C-alpha cells in the first residue's frame, strides 16, 4: 500500500508557521515565544500525551506545556536552589532537562542531565500541571543522567552513565511511586560498558515495550550495543555495526546509538551516529525482527539521528529525527526517505501517536508537527 504525507492544516495554532517542503512533505513549525520574546532554549525532552497535550523540556530550567494542540504554551520553568561551589565561589546551576514523561495535563516527571558532582543531574515531579515542582528523592552521586522510561505511571527506570568509564557498568535507578523517589538497582548483570556510555540526546535511549526493557549505549571503538531485560536487573546485549572513533581513547567523540524504539515484542529500530561532523552511514540506523537478539544495518545512509519513533497502528512506518534532518521508513528501518532536506537543522526529539501524528522538538525553541496519512 502506498502512503501520502501531509500536514493537518486545520490546526490553527500552527498555520502561521513556516512549513519545510521536500517532495510535497511538510513539517508545520511555529517558533515558541514567552513573555520575553522568542524562546532560545534547546528542547531534547518531549512527551506527547495526546495531540492536544504536549510537554517539552530543555536548557535553562525550561519546561513548557500546551493543552490546546500548540495554540498556546504555558511557561512552567522549574525554579530551584541548585548551586555548585569551586575555589572561586558559589554559582547557580542552570538545569538542562533532557527528558520528560507526562501522564496527563497535570502529572509529569522531568529529568535534568549533567554532572551530579556539580548538582546538575536531578529529577523533578509535578501533580498540579507544573504550578509546583518538587525535587524527587534520589541517591546523591556524581553520575550523569541520560534517560527515563516507564512500564506504567508508577514504575519507571532511569539510565545513568557508568561511575568508572574504564571498566564500570551502566547504572539504573528505579521508582515505584511515579517518580517521587528513586533507588539504585544493586547487583545488575550484563551492563558492563567499558569505554561506553549512553547519550542524553532525546530522552529515548531507554524504552519499555511488550514486557521488556531496552537501552542503547556506545561511544568506544567497540560496536554500539542494544541491551534488553525483562526485570531491569539482568541484561543481555547484542552488537550493532556502529563503531566509535578509534582515535579517541575511550571513544567519547559522540559515536553511538542514541535512541531505541520497539513496535512490539519483535520489531525494533535504533538510530544514532556522531553528533560531530561525520559523513552519512548505513550503520547510523539498524533494525531487528527478533526482539533485539540481532541487528541489521539500514540499506540507506543517514546522517546523525538522535531519536526514532514508530507510528502506532501504522505497521512498518517510523520517523527518525536529528540535528540535520528527519526521515521516514516504510519498511521498519530497512530503507529511509527524507522528510526534510539536510539543511533543516532543528529537531532533536520526535514522538508519534495514533492518527499518524508526530511532534518534534529541538534547537532554539523549535516545535514541529506532521501528520502522515
Automatic annotation (TrEMBL):
Signal peptide segment: 1-17
Keyword Kinase tagged: no
Organism: Didymosphaeria variabile
Protein name, per record: Oligoxyloglucan reducing end-specific cellobiohydrolase
Source domain of life: Eukaryota
Record keywords, A-Z: Signal
InterPro entries, sorted: WD40/YVTN_repeat-like_dom_sf
Keyword flag Transport: no
Amino acid at each position: 500500500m502506498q502512503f501520502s504525507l501531509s500536514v493537518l492544516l486545520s490546526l490553527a495554532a500552527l498555520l502561521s508557521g513556516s512549513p519545510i517542503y521536500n517532495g510535497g512533505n511538510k513539517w508545520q513549525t511555529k517558533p515558541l515565544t514567552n513573555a520575553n520574546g522568542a524562546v532560545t532554549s534547546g528542547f531534547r525532552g518531549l512527551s506527547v500525551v495526546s495531540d492536544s497535550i504536549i510537554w517539552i523540556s530543555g536548557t535553562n530550567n525550561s519546561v513548557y506545556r500546551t493543552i490546546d494542540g500548540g495554540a498556546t504554551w504555558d511557561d512552567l520553568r522549574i525554579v530551584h536552589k541548585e548551586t555548585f561551589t569551586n575555589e572561586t565561589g558559589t554559582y547557580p546551576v542552570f538545569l538542562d532537562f533532557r527528558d520528560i514523561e507526562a501522564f496527563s495535563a497535570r502529572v509529569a516527571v522531568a529529568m535534568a542531565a549533567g554532572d551530579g558532582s556539580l548538582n546538575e543531574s536531578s529529577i523533578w515531579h509535578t501533580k498540579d500541571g507544573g504550578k509546583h515542582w518538587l525535587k524527587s528523592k534520589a541517591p546523591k552521586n556524581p553520575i550523569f543522567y541520560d534517560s527515563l522510561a516507564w512500564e506504567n505511571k508508577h514504575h519507571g527506570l532511569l539510565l545513568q552513565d557508568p561511575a568508572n568509564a574504564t571498566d564500570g557498568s551502566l547504572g539504573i535507578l528505579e521508582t515505584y511511586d511515579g517518580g517521587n523517589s528513586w533507588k539504585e538497582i544493586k547487583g545488575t548483570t550484563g551492563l558492563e560498558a567499558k569505554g561506553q556510555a549512553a547519550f542524553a540526546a532525546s530522552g529515548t535511549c531507554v524504552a519499555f515495550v511488550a514486557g521488556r526493557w531496552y537501552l542503547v549505549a556506545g561511544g568506544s571503538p567497540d560496536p554500539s550495543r542494544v541491551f534488553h531485560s525483562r526485570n531491569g536487573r539482568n541484561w543481555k546485549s547484542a552488537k550493532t555495526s556502529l563503531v566509535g572513533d578509534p582515535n579517541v581513547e575511550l571513544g567519547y567523540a559522540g559515536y553511538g546509538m542514541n535512541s531505541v524504539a520497539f513496535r512490539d515484542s519483535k520489531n525494533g529500530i535504533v538510530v544514532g551516529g556522531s553528533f560531530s561532523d561525520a559523513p552519512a552511514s548505513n550503520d547510523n540506523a539498524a533494525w531487528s525482527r527478533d526482539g533485539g537478539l540481532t541487528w541489521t544495518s539500514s540499506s540507506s545512509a543517514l546522517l546523525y539521528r538522535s531519536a526514532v519513533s514508530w507510528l502506532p497502528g501504522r505497521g512498518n512506518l517510523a520517523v527518525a529525527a536529528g540535528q540535520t534532518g528527519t526521515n521516514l521508513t516504510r519498511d521498519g528501518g530497512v530503507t529511509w526517505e527524507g522528510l526534510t532536506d539536510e539543511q533543516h537543522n532543528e529537531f532533536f526529539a520526535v514522538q508519534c501517536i495514533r492518527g499518524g501524528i508526530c511532534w518534534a522538538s529541538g534547537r532554539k525553541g523549535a516545535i514541529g508537527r506532521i501528520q502522515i496519512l
